[in-house]
Amino acid sequence: MPRNSHPASPTASSSKTLAIRPAIYRAQAPPPSAGLDDDDDSDDEVHESRVARLSRNSICNARGLQNVGCLVMVYGALLALFIGYPIATELTHKTPIAFNLNINSTGQHAVAFGNRGLIDEDTPIDKYQIPSYHDPNHVLQLVFSDEFETEGRSFYPGDDPYWEAVDLHYWQTGNLEWYDPAAITTRNGALEINLTKVDDPSKNHNLDYTGGMLSTWNKFCFTGGLIVTNVMLPGINNVFGLWPAVWTLGNLGRAGYGATLDGMWPYSYDACDVGTLPNQTLLNGPPAALNTGPDNGVLSVLPGQKLSRCTCHGESHPGPTRSDGSYVGRSAPEIDIFEGQIGGPDGAHLGQVSQSAQWAPFNAGYIWDNSSANQQVVDWSLSHHNTYTGGIYQQPTSVVTTTNQACYQLIDGCYAVQGFEYVPGYDDAVWILLLNTEHFTLKQWSQYITWITDDKVSWTLNAAGVGADPATNISARPISQEPMYIIANLGISQGFGFVDFAHLTFPATMRLDWIRVYQHPDKINIGCNPAEYPTSDYINQHIQAYTDPLLTTWVGDYKQPFPKNKLINQC
């Protein structure tokens, strides 16, 4: 999302993992006894003697009781294996949904907010499960929804269990508006974010416009899955200047709070190498970091990944640690559902959406591997590569797609579904063993991001597209493994593109009919503080940075050092 902001950093590892998951078993009737003749053959002396013997002997002797006991134990073990284990697995597997339906990440009970749980009661039952957009053979399960049916909701701090609007100037991208919680409400079954031109800028922090941004930061997060929203875009489809967006960010970075993004955004990295260092350089190299960028050849001016895998033991770091004592590289990656814009071929003015992920560290010249193996664009007549390929603060993987031209505020006012579906991690398949009563299935999960425009797949990025880059000596960057939260905003900025002030109509309104998050039933992972990527303790340790938007940098304003880095012998 930010183009000229302080970015944040993650860490990438080249290690490959193989995950085998136990499958769900179902109990079957025990097979009939084999090798016993049920016919009563009176001429069979052996049979006669056996029957007579059994008729004379009681099972209530020691040997009989022992045999019965063994049979009971075996039968019990079979029941535990084929019935008990799957039930236990299912119950523990669904714990995040089953036992936390009414509690957000900060511990607020939704009962205080009209009993609104993770899944909105107004969500149609037939939307609780839907096919995957990436692979329709997979069925996805609803884990979060908001239908925005309640009239007149407000999103000031404490008003809602999952959403909170900010009250600040989004200086990172040179926005011309003040983000005000009063600009956001619900009306006629939709969330409304309004952008308004003010009469007296002196009463609006000396800014000419008010807009709105709300998010689920530190309240609702998800890792992997599908997020979709039904959107009416603001304004009209041929006038430049509005900047609507719905996007996601790692929970360790809070949008609008610059100090928390410093050294965190847009990293997605878990290796200890030059990619974690300021400017991606070590001992005046590699040459690609000095000669392939737009700023006198400089590729990056990022301050380095603050919470990298190179962090010295005992420094401030959210963890976790590996068996060798090293930290997992952490950051605040960004994946956008969309950013609305106006453009088109040969000077045409059409409504479009930019669908991107942001990355650091950077490839040489910001050129990622967009070969046909790593990128699939469904319809090149509707989509093209974004002409913005990167800069000293960020590297995007981005495709621009023409959207439904009717679904704008000042045209038909209809809605169009936008979203993305993703599997976190590196370009190494995760294999999962699934069992049922008939056969074994070995299923492969690849790592990707698939974007959706107008309820159809627009393009897919495979993880190999952001693999290692020998020119800059960086390792592969994983598709975000951080818990991601949701952001929706409407602003205006000349940093995003040309603004046609003369023809814009105010107030401009973006409306979200609903927003929903789905995950594969075998991979439910919701919450802002997962054990594999915890955030709560670190946020609480640095709560001032996460609650004071005037702190724009970690070192200069927040007055805290970056953790020491073992790669440059600081331990």
UniProtKB/TrEMBL annotation:
Q: Which GO terms describe its molecular function?
A: glucosidase activity
Transmembrane regions: 68-88
Which UniProt key words apply to this protein? Cell wall biogenesis/degradation, Glycoprotein, Membrane, Signal-anchor, Transmembrane, Transmembrane helix
Please list the GO biological process terms of this entry.
(1->6)-beta-D-glucan biosynthetic process; fungal-type cell wall organization
Q: Report domain GH16 positions.
A: 126-523
UniProt key word Transmembrane helix: yes
Entries under Pfam families matching the protein: SKN1_KRE6_Sbg1
What protein is this chain from? GH16 domain-containing protein
